[in-house]
Design goal:
Number of helices: 16
Strand content: under 5%
Structural class: mainly alpha
Helix content: over 70%
CATH superfamily: MFS general substrate transporter like domains
Largest sheet: none
Shape: globular
CATH topology: Growth Hormone, Chain: A
Oligomer: single chain
CATH class: Mainly Alpha
Order of helices and strands: HHHHHHHHHHHHHHHH
Radius of gyration: 21 Å
Length: 433
């Protein structure tokens, strides 16, 4: 009898098998689409920035500070909310985060004072941190570590679908005024949250299904806080492998967010590309990333036996090389779109695999905490990709800024190389109860 992935023959009757597969598909699709809407109310600011700059007279450093504060708060929020989400119902946690983030977007759209805009965007960063941790909890409860890289790479396409959709949508909305870049996505996100509330469930046990046998471990929600904190200390905070992925993630996000956050402005000022056209080019960056994520997950599981750092070494180096080629390419829309697509194809492999590998090393018991921890480092990168890059470009121009981005990409490549021999997951060394 064919059993669902991760279920034992003894535990899986044909009915349970079919039902388990149904819920795996449902959870995967719902979290994928749901998290894409988090991006709809996060990356929309990139296309509003030229309008905000023109209307309010802000500098690139000022706009970069918005990005930096939002990113730092988001990174801290991912870690804090990861610790909480490991002990909460992931369904309602994710829904609440999306509703609050959408509300901050609507408020941002109605604001004009710089301080008020900053407050709402920082709060949005905090609520955005309630999106990824519950997804990590859901994926590690519903899928075996033997297939998690493949399945979570499919899930990670949500980043590209969301960022690509908002690039096209906000590119056109900006023509009617920058405020529409926040009002429309905010409204759509609230509708998506309602659908998520009906479609999501927390764990297999919550719908009467058996636990995955190769992930059996004491549930964080069933032990006292002191024991859980000890587990977090051992399996996450002092785990060398997770530290390697976390620090490398800083440089992954410098490269990725420099293109996403500054792409429309950079294309307009250095290549003469208008916002509507740049929206399609950024969407191409994201679409290529979908293919890159899927392929990197498959390679990690099938070629490297779950050792994602090995895939990341190659991807990070090629992403840096593609970005370098883009910068020196002629001002041809087709050539620039292709090279941006190449950069997206390679950068989204490491972007997806960092969270996957951290979740596997931490086990499902601390998956949300682990991805939150790596997220802190990822979004601290906005000190460079946000304010730092804005200040550098204001002072020395785009050439110096872009070469700095590429240098950081190469540093990230070296860091992933340090994790070449890391084990694929932490279940074998974790005591069961």
């Amino acid at each position: 009898m064919n059993t669902p992935t991760g279920t034992s023959t003894a535990a899986a009757t044909p009915a349970v098998t079919d039902e388990f597969r149904y819920w795996q598909r449902r959870i995967l699709i719902t979290t994928l689409v749901g998290y894409a809407f988090f991006y709809l109310v996060r990356k929309n600011i990139s296309f509003a920035m030229p309008g905000i700059k023109a209307q309010l007279g802000l500098t690139k450093a000022d706009l970069g500070m918005f990005l930096t504060l939002h990113g730092v708060v988001y990174g801290v929020s991912k870690f804090v909310n990861g610790f909480v989400a490991d002990r909460m119902n992931a369904r309602w946690y994710m829904v609440t985060g999306l509703v609050l983030s959408a509300a901050m977007n609507v408020c941002f759209g109605f604001s004009s004072a710089v301080v008020t805009l900053g407050v709402f965007w920082v709060l949005n960063g905090w609520f955005q941190g309630m999106g990824f941790p519950p997804c990590a909890r859901l994926m590690t409860h519903w899928f075996s570590p033997k297939e998690l890289a493949t399945k979570m790479s499919i899930w990670n396409t949500s980043h590209s679908f969301g960022a690509g959709a908002v690039a096209i949508l906000a590119g056109y909305l900006a023509a009617y005024g920058w405020r529409y870049c926040f009002w429309v996505p905010g409204g759509l996100a609230i509708l998506a949250a309602v659908v998520m509330a009906f479609r999501l469930r927390d764990t297999p046990q919550s719908v009467g299904l058996p636990e995955l046998p190769d992930t059996r471990i004491a549930d964080a929600g069933k032990e006292d806080t002191k024991d859980f904190k000890r587990f977090i200390w051992r399996q996450v905070l002092t785990n060398r492998g997770i530290w390697v992925f976390a620090i490398a993630n800083f440089f992954v996000y410098v490269l990725r967010y420099s293109i996403l956050d500054w792409g429309p402005t950079l294309l307009k000022e250095t290549k003469g590309v208008e916002l509507q056209e740049s929206g399609w080019m950024i969407a191409a960056f994201e679409a290529s990333g979908v293919v890159g994520m899927l392929l990197s997950g498959w390679i990690t599981d099938k070629v490297f036996g779950g050792r994602g750092a090995r895939t990341c070494v190659f991807c990070m180096f090629m992403a840096s090389l593609s970005a370098l080629a883009f910068w020196y390419a002629p001002s041809s829309t087709l050539v620039n779109a292709v090279l941006l697509g190449c950069a997206g194809f390679f950068i989204y492999g490491p972007q997806a695999l960092v969270g996957i590998c951290a979740a596997n090393l931490a086990t499902k018991k601390a998956a949300a905490t682990a991805v939150g921890f790596t997220g802190v480092f990822g979004y601290l990168s906005t000190t460079l990709s946000g304010w730092g890059l804005g200040k550098l470009v204001d002072t020395f121009g785009w050439h110096a800024g872009f070469l700095a981005i590429i240098a950081f990409g190469l540093v990230g490549t070296a860091l992933f190389a340090l994790g070449w021999n890391l084990k694929p997951h932490g279940y074998a060394t974790t005591s069961t109860h």
